[in-house]
């Protein structure tokens, strides 16, 4: 099946969004672990920053990534006319 230029643009933008969000996920997940000794010199509310990011910060960022993906995809779906709404 041959995809139209509009379908190809939709998938290019979808893959670009996914790649950016996966890069953010990777940095948050593995960057904190890699730089933990240096990050432990920063203290937030009595806890080392690496501990704080592992216990709370990364989870908050993961939820924000999920929220933003859903928001951006809904917006993109409406733009390309492929949304599943009540319209």
What does this structure look like?
- The protein is mainly alpha-helical and 87 residues long.
- Helices cover 76% and strands 5% of the residues.
- It is elongated.
- It starts with a helix and ends in a 7-residue tail after the last helix.
- The mean pLDDT is 88.
Give a short summary of the structure:
This protein is mainly alpha-helical and 87 residues long. It contains 3 helices and 2 strands; from the N terminus they run ααββα. The chain is 76% helix and 5% strand.
User: Percentage of helical residues?
Assistant: over 70%
Q: CA-to-CA gap between the ends?
A: 29 Å
Tally of strands: 2
Q: What is the C-alpha radius of gyration, as a whole number of Å?
A: 18 Å
| Beta content | under 5%
Strand order of the largest sheet: 1-2
How would you sum up the global shape? Answer: elongated
Low-confidence region ranges: none
How confident is the prediction overall: mean pLDDT? 88
Helix/strand-derived category reads: mainly alpha
Main β-sheet, in a few words?
2 strands, antiparallel
Q: Please give the count of helices.
A: 3
Q: H/E series, N to C?
A: HHEEH
């Amino acid at each position: 099946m041959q995809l139209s230029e509009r379908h190809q643009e939709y998938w290019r933008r979808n893959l670009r969004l996914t790649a950016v969000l996966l890069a953010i996920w990777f940095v948050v997940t593995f960057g904190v672990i890699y730089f933990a000794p240096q990050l432990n010199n920063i203290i937030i509310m009595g806890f080392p920053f690496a501990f704080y990011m592992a216990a709370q910060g990364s989870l908050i960022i993961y939820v924000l990534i999920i929220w933003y993906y859903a928001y951006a995809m809904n917006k993109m779906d409406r733009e390309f006319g492929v949304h599943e709404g009540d319209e």
